[in-house]
Amino acid sequence: MLNCSRRGVSALFTITGENISRLESLRSEYPKATNVILALAESYTAVGNTEKALQLYQSIPEQTEEIQQLYLSVLVNSDRYQEVLNLLPESIDKLSPVLSGWRGVASDRLGQKAIARDFLEKAWHEGQRNIQFLLPLARLWAEEGDPIQAGAAYQILQETADNQFTWEDYALMARVANLGGFGDLSDEQKVDYYERCVTKAGADLLKLPISSEILKDRLELWQALNNIERLLNSYADWLHWLANAGRIDDLEQELGQIRSLAVEKRISWQQHSQFLEGLKPLIALNKK
């Protein structure tokens, strides 16, 4: 076997077609060198030739769990989830923690949420902290009302993979923060999660099933903090949500709450008028 590490072989080349050719030459010279095969498979994966990468992983005589993991990761990252399930035992007891994690990821992507949770939780309880396992598990815990567990997973992800978050994650993290999943946060810290969510999601927030929860909780936090500017911004977003949902009675009730702010002198009547002026198209539309 060629006496150099897989990391060393990979470091020899920037991944280009020419350099893949050089790795192929090395493989021809040392056909049983596992590290060369692995470096070549990773290079093919990087340039999008997943079929070639899978063939190379399969060609390795000693199919260790590490090789299995690499093979499964290629399948998952190319959306071939059913193939992952076909390769792995259905019984959770027959799977190592890491292979359980991969089965959980594939099940989650196929919409099998309850099954996925069992496999992902096994990986979690056995100390597996692979980002690809943590993201779906954090989401499942947050969606199913387990803020403490979701908070633990999301905190790890915030430190290691915050570039992987979608705007749906920011919405779920806001929920987790408000329910105590990130510990004893102040209202300022909680509302920061909501503001990040609204900023990241923009108009897409309205597509989320929990959008009303997010906007209402955000409003209540700014009320508690008595930040009038932020409160009025939150009211505007909340009223737009009510209008889009056709909840006219609730819309009228909230407009009454805003008038109360002026009566109680928490805002001036000029601020009240300016706020209503901005909502004129919305109010007119819903009076038709």
Automatic annotation (TrEMBL):
Family annotation (InterPro entries): TPR-like_helical_dom_sf
The organism's place on the tree of life at top rank: Bacteria
Protein name, entry field: Tetratricopeptide repeat protein
Species: Aliterella atlantica CENA595
